């Protein structure tokens, strides 16, 4: 990578750019957002000139610049990029640049690397900005303690990546949630001070901020300028938006995030390096769908992104729970194959002593009392039916009622004075302990090898309270995540074809760090279709549908006791990586027929669902939802028109179908494979009545610009609308 002599350098891709001026002592950020185009030297000079802010009254006597590594030395009174101390000293970092490298590729990707040093603390910092063809700017840094100088460890308290925002970005969107209600959006207006979301759960959590977005007032799915950040780390995190009265240079506020470090967690001895997780920043002029499209493009470009068609799954949990009877499971497998399932997953209850959730965790051997011949009779039967086999595990956890805990009580993560209360009847294992790590790797390797397992559902069902280890109670939250990553990497290296799902009481560990090592996520333990419509809609803000586990569950719902139609449940589960989580041996013939039609419909639509652009309509009534997937060239689309509750209005009015091209002629039909929904009307709009019978021709100007009147559905009903370019 060549060293650049240029004073101003810019990364440009997919209509966005990031521009830095190589000022001394620390480079400053000139611009992040819309592509400024190919600028001349005079243009760059103008950008630099207009980056000089006023000097305010009662202020530092030089212009405040917002640098790539903001600290008080820049006159920045907000949250610093890093802070720490050297045995109580060296607490005022004053950085200088020691080198900069820059490259820009023809495909739009590029990288800027800035080398910084702080003489007072003997720290060297490498800050790397990578802009890919998706337009997502990924930022990571390494902080190294030099070998010469004070031998005392440097206590690193915080490292954050911060980027500036313009004055027009005034509205914040992030997420909260709980078990079975993950990724619930919440909005607020930026005010002076810090909007900070801190995660102290040892994983992103069911209330994960997930993606912190800031945009112009009223930004929606299809319109409005918006900036966002995601912290790609599977442990404690911090997200923030901060606005000071004096601004941030010529910018108004800052957006950022990073790992949340617990006290004493990172103590850099001479020669040691702390590497931050990547923070992924994206900008869009086309609202939240534009932002989602950038992240989906980023994910689909990964070398490890699933390339084969995503198999339709049956998971045994809500079918049999802990009742692992071989004959019953064989019948379930037979029925699964009959309706078109491609992957059979045996959930919790197969290992030693596991008849309920209060025993057995940690003992990863097949229970001979339930499975006297091992899992082979089931596995062989599943494979003979043409399906592959998956298995549920929760390797990071342990029940005290287990042989593992009785033989190795010191392997349980917690204070030396004794562990606190259980959660879900379990504790975490200290997987950073080399002995624990080796035990887990050998156990999992043996299982995968013995049974030729194609898929592991990897669960994590409690938060890490008091995550310390050793007689000195050293903090261990960071070490747990690091060990998890190494464990997943080692298992994948031994079994390259193995797929792994990230499950954590449902959607409690969904981030781009874990997805660098796994192949899908379990969005929620809730299969209630009303809840799932929202959960899946917002999970898709970061992840493309093929990575989002979405299952058809029984009625009444396991988590909400809601009774719903099988057609609504099936339609909802279609928009993800679908599966079944129900005892389908008990289904009546008409429901089995719809299940079989649904699996065929999924296989037909799979290339579009898992390769197109996710779109969501901005509607004034939250009881009505319109979402879908559109081919990138606008040639095909599938939409779901759903209602989750009643509304005062009887008519929808004209509703635009997002993502279609106004200058293209289309054909439209209603898919009736699962039957028609229940309507709250005497008759449907005329166009819909015709589209139920066959394809009808409608121009893009009507579909995408004028809109079409939608039918009024009864609550908890959904309609599938298919669109294709006119032949």
TrEMBL record:
<feature type="region of interest" description="Disordered">
    <location>
        <begin position="80"/>
        <end position="110"/>
    </location>
</feature>
<feature type="domain" description="Glycosyl hydrolase family 36 N-terminal">
    <location>
        <begin position="27"/>
        <end position="269"/>
    </location>
</feature>
<dbReference type="InterPro" id="IPR050985">
    <property type="entry name" value="Alpha-glycosidase_related"/>
</dbReference>
<dbReference type="GO" id="GO:0016052">
    <property type="term" value="P:carbohydrate catabolic process"/>
</dbReference>
<keyword id="KW-0326">Glycosidase</keyword>
<dbReference type="Pfam" id="PF16875">
    <property type="entry name" value="Glyco_hydro_36N"/>
</dbReference>
<dbReference type="InterPro" id="IPR013785">
    <property type="entry name" value="Aldolase_TIM"/>
</dbReference>
<dbReference type="InterPro" id="IPR017853">
    <property type="entry name" value="GH"/>
</dbReference>
<protein>
    <recommendedName>
        <fullName>alpha-galactosidase</fullName>
        <ecNumber>3.2.1.22</ecNumber>
    </recommendedName>
</protein>
<dbReference type="GO" id="GO:0004557">
    <property type="term" value="F:alpha-galactosidase activity"/>
</dbReference>
<dbReference type="InterPro" id="IPR038417">
    <property type="entry name" value="Alpga-gal_N_sf"/>
</dbReference>
<dbReference type="InterPro" id="IPR002252">
    <property type="entry name" value="Glyco_hydro_36"/>
</dbReference>
<dbReference type="Pfam" id="PF02065">
    <property type="entry name" value="Melibiase"/>
</dbReference>
<feature type="compositionally biased region" description="Low complexity">
    <location>
        <begin position="80"/>
        <end position="93"/>
    </location>
</feature>
<keyword id="KW-0378">Hydrolase</keyword>
<dbReference type="InterPro" id="IPR031704">
    <property type="entry name" value="Glyco_hydro_36_N"/>
</dbReference>
């Amino acid at each position: 990578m060549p060293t650049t002599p240029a004073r101003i350098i810019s990364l440009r891709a997919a209509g966005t750019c990031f521009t830095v001026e190589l000022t001394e002592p620390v480079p400053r950020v000139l611009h992040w957002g819309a592509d400024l185009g190919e600028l001349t030297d005079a243009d760059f000079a103008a950008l630099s000139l207009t980056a000089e802010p006023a000097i305010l009254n009662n202020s530092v006597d030089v212009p405040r610049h917002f640098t790539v590594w903001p600290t008080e030395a820049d006159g920045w009174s907000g949250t610093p990029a890093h802070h720490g101390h050297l045995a109580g000293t060296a607490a005022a970092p004053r950085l200088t640049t020691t080198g900069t490298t820059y490259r820009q590729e023809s495909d739009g990707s590029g990288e800027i690397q800035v080398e910084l040093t702080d003489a007072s603390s003997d720290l060297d910092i490498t800050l790397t900005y990578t802009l890919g063809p998706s337009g997502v700017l990924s930022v990571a840094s390494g902080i190294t303690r030099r070998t010469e100088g004070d031998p005392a460890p440097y206590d690193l308290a915080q490292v954050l990546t911060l980027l500036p925002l313009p004055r027009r970005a005034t509205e914040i969107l992030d997420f909260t949630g709980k078990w079975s209600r993950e990724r619930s959006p919440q909005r607020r207006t930026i005010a002076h001070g810090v909007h900070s979301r801190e995660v102290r759960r040892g994983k992103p959590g069911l209330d994960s901020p997930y993606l912190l977005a800031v945009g112009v007032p009223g930004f929606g799915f299809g319109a409005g300028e918006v900036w966002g950040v995601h912290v790609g780390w599977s442990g404690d995190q911090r997200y923030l938006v901060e606005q000071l009265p004096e601004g941030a240079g010529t910018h108004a506020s800052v957006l950022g995030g990073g790992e949340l470090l617990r006290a004493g967690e990172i103590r850099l001895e001479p020669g040691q390096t702390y590497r931050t997780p990547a923070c992924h920043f994206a900008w869009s002029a086309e609202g939240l769908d534009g932002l989602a499209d950038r992240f989906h493009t980023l994910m689909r470009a990964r070398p490890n992104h699933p390339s084969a068609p995503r198999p339709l799954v049956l998971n045994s949990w809500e079918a049999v729970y802990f009742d692992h009877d071989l004959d019953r499971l064989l019948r379930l497998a037979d029925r699964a194959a009959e309706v078109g399932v491609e992957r059979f997953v045996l959930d919790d209850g197969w290992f030693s002593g596991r008849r309920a959730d209060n025993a057995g965790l940690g003992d990863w051997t097949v229970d001979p009392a339930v499975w006297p011949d091992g899992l082979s009779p089931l596995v062989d039967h599943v494979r003979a039916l043409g399906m592959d086999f998956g298995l549920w595990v929760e390797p990071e956890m342990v029940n005290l009622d287990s042989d593992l805990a009785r033989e190795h009580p010191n392997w349980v993560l917690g204070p030396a004075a004794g562990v606190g209360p259980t959660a879900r009847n379990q504790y975490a294992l200290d997987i950073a302990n080399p002995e624990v790590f080796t035990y887990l790797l050998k156990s999992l390797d043996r299982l995968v090898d013995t049974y030729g397992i194609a898929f592991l559902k990897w669960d994590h069902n409690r938060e890490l309270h008091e995550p310390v280890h050793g007689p000195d109670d050293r903090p261990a939250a960071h070490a747990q995540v690091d060990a998890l990553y190494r464990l997943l990497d080692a298992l994948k290296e031994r079994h390259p074809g193995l797929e792994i799902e990230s499950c954590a009481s449902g959607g409690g560990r969904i981030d781009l760090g874990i997805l660098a090592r796994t192949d899908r996520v379990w969005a929620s333990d809730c299969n209630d279709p009303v809840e799932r419509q929202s959960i899946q809609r917002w999970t898709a803000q970061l992840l493309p549908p093929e990575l989002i586990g979405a299952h058809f569950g029984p009625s009444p719902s396991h988590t909400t006791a809601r009774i719903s139609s099988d057609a609504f449940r099936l339609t909802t589960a279609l928009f993800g990586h679908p599966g079944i989580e129900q005892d389908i041996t008990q289904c009546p013939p008409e429901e089995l027929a719809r299940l079989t039609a649904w699996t065929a419909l999924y296989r037909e639509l799979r290339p579009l669902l898992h390769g197109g652009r996710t779109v969501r309509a901005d509607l004034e009534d939250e009881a009505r939802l319109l979402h879908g997937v559109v081919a990138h060239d606008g040639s095909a689309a599938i939409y779901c028109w759903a209602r989750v509750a009643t509304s005062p209005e009887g008519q929808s009015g004209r509703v635009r179908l997002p993502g279609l091209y106004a200058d293209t002629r289309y054909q439209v039909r209603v898919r009736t494979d699962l039957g028609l929904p229940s309507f709250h009307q005497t008759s449907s709009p005329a166009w819909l009545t015709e589209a139920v019978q066959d394809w009808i021709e409608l121009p893009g100007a009507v579909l995408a610009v004028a809109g079409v009147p939608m039918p009024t559905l009864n609550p908890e009903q959904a309609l599938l609308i298919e669109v294709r370019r006119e032949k």
